[in-house]
Amino acid sequence: MRNVALHLSGHKARSYGGVPAARAVPVARTLRRRPQARQASNAPAAEPAFRMASRRTGQATTVVVVADVAIGAGGLVVIAGPCSVESRQQIRETARRVKAAGARILRGGAYKPRTSPYEFQGLGEKALEWLAEAREASGLPVVTEVLSPEDVDVVGDYADMLQVGARNMQNYALLRKLATSSKPVLLKRGPAATIREWLLAAEYILSGGNPNVVLCERGIRTFETATRNTLDLAGAALVKEISHLPVLVDPSHGTGQRRLVTPASRAALAIGADGLIIEVHPCPDEAWSDGEQSLDPAQFSTLMDDLRGMMAKCA
Ligand code: PEP
Ligand code: MN
After folding, report:
1. What is the largest CA-CA distance in the chain?
2. Who's near 46: CB < 8 A, 6+ residues apart?
3. What residue owns the CA closest to ligand 1's atom 9?
4. Which domains does the chain show, CATH number per domain?
5. Nearest to 204 by CA among 242, 227, 176
6. What does the pLDDT read at residue 201?
7. Distance 83 CA to ligand 2 centre (A)
8. Rounded CA separation 87/126 (Å)
9. How many CA atoms lie within 13 A of 151 on its CB side?
10. Of 52, 142, 285, 301, most Cβ neighbours within 10 A?
């Protein structure tokens, strides 16, 4: 097995990408509520913006452990798998192939948040069972999305990590419920969420009692339509600086196009992301969702070789 586990400089709090962590707190202050907004509301004058998510001076990146995989410990953790779980065979085969290429965690949607109610909504609990079987067969822990507070317990019974999708980043009932879960949470940034809103969403989970939060930049909505979303890598780098939480990048949803996944992954590695989440399907052209942005297993393997090469050069 060839896992990507090379340690990179630039992940430690003391000097992040050449910016001393001491700057993190002043930067966080600039993200506080603006004075005008404060006057217009009853908010306290000195809002403790990110009480628990802020990186204090000298504080190292928090390591979030998913089963036996450490995210934030200095290596690049790659999560891979299909957008949606479609069959027992599909998820099992994908797990085998992505593991062989070096992925550390398996992804796959059982409950799908689709823009249209007429699109495939996911296979639900049956898909959770197949995900758990694929974990047993491959040894890869599993992350999958949970859409509503009512589903947190059942999804938590099968998954090793619970994903909050972009559309749900400000579903506060869901965040509060996840705060009581023993499972780590992958919190995607909302497509129209500011960094402040994203970190405050993380605060709901942290302050409610769950310290295991991993952030994920997956692209935001801008005037640009040539790519599905605009992958905000500068935002991801900023969040790495001001927060101690690990930050992943999703180059699949962040670009929407298969051929852009590799350059975006390389860029994410360069800005110091703690990991990537990438859509891989055994036959992307036949995928039930997000096929156009999915890699096939051979393309994923080539990408992993490429990332390992990049890390070896930087070592
Ligand atoms: C997904 O991971 O398949 C997904 C729906 O992602 P997002 O919430 O970022 O759109
Ligand atoms: Mn998808």
Report:
1. 58
2. none
3. 166
4. 15-314 (3.20.20.70)
5. 176
6. 98
7. 4
8. 9
9. 17
10. 142
Q: Count, in order, helices (H) and strands (E) of the chain.
A: 11, 12
Render pLDDT for 114-157 as a digit per residue (tens, 0 to 9).
999 999 999 999 999 999 999 999 999 999 999 999 999 999 99
Q: How far is the CA of 253 from the centre of ligand 1 (A)?
A: 7
The dihedral sign for the CA sequence 285, 291, 297, 302: positive
Alpha carbon 204 to its chain's center: 17
Mean pLDDT score of the chain: 89
Alpha carbon distances (Å) from 194 to 200, 254, 256, 289: 10, 16, 21, 27
Residues near ligand 1 (Cβ within 6 A): 83, 109, 113, 165-167, 188, 218, 250, 253
Mean pLDDT confidence for 215-241: 98
Q: What letter does residue 283 receive in the DSSP assignment?
A: S
**Alpha helices per DSSP H over the chain:** 24-30, 35-39, 88-101, 125-138, 152-158, 172-178, 195-207, 233-242, 251-255, 258-270, 297-314
